[in-house]
Amino acid sequence: MSHDLLKGKKGIIFGALNDMSIAWKVAEKAVEEGATITLSNTPIAVRMGQVDELAKKLNAQVIPADATSVEDLQNVFSKSVEILGGPVDFVLHSIGMSPNVRKKRTYDDLDYNMLEKTLDISAISFHKMLQVAKKQDAIAEYGSVVALTYVAAQRTFFGYNDMADAKSLLESIARSFGYIYGREKNVRINTISQSPTPTTAGNGVKGMEHLMDFANKMSPLGNADAEECANYCVMMFSDFTRKVTMQNLYHDGGFSSMGMSLRAMNQYSKGFEEYTDENGHIIYG
Ligand SMILES: NC(=O)c1ccc[n+]([C@@H]2O[C@H](COP(=O)([O-])OP(=O)(O)OC[C@H]3O[C@@H](n4cnc5c(N)ncnc54)[C@H](O)[C@@H]3O)[C@@H](O)[C@H]2O)c1
Fold it and tell me: Could you say which residues form the signal peptide (predicted)?
């Protein structure tokens, strides 16, 4: 059901790869709520993924761009303003990739060229986007920019690897740029820290299934799914959040404030039971 929350608004959605992508759901929701949008992803993702299918469905144009290329980003913003007929009201950065994770390099054996790529793709691209947009004056007054992040920026999670460093940097950029863009143009910049979600990027995290189950059991409201994340993004793009900026907003069912839950504790003690010998002695735990 639409509430017309984004009626008449224009936006750019980066990072819809397939129908599991969080950006895919955000694009659908934004249009459902009355927005017109452009979509962007890497040329290879546009060729290999299902972005065109989404574009057709939402009557949106796709502007391919490698988000690490300032030139490509300049093209996305200038074309979007042209296509949509004026400066945009919202932007979603839903981009993340770690070559170290892909190549199974552990955090104490990082390849530094790959680390640079991780940081460039997953965090510095956000700075590049904001700098390009500001120079082109491509975001309207009280526009809203959201990037997606993960609680591994604050706490250590097994297997999240150098993406944790990228997310810390991403959140820092939201604050640093948020000050300047807010002061000069009333543009707000926030990050949404999402529950583990089964997507192409999410499934690349080591032990994702167990992480999802653990997070779900730890969170009083359970994990937030991609569609719920899209609802939150739409709210952040809407006029109902005009004074929210420079925040890292947890959208995780309460996970980030928990220490231990009954459900997780019960599951943990079951784990012990699984490893008791015939005499009831714990042999592993
Ligand atoms: N899935 C999760 O568990 C989870 C949890 C918290 C935050 N996030 C974040 O949500 C965002 C979206 O990820 P997702 O889970 O929807 O997975 P996804 O794989 O669907 O999306 C990642 C996107 O990044 C794009 N991308 C990669 N390199 C790029 C580049 N150089 N230029 C432009 N685009 C590039 C990919 O093509 C893809 O569309 C990411 O920032 C991710 O870290 C995901």
Answer: none
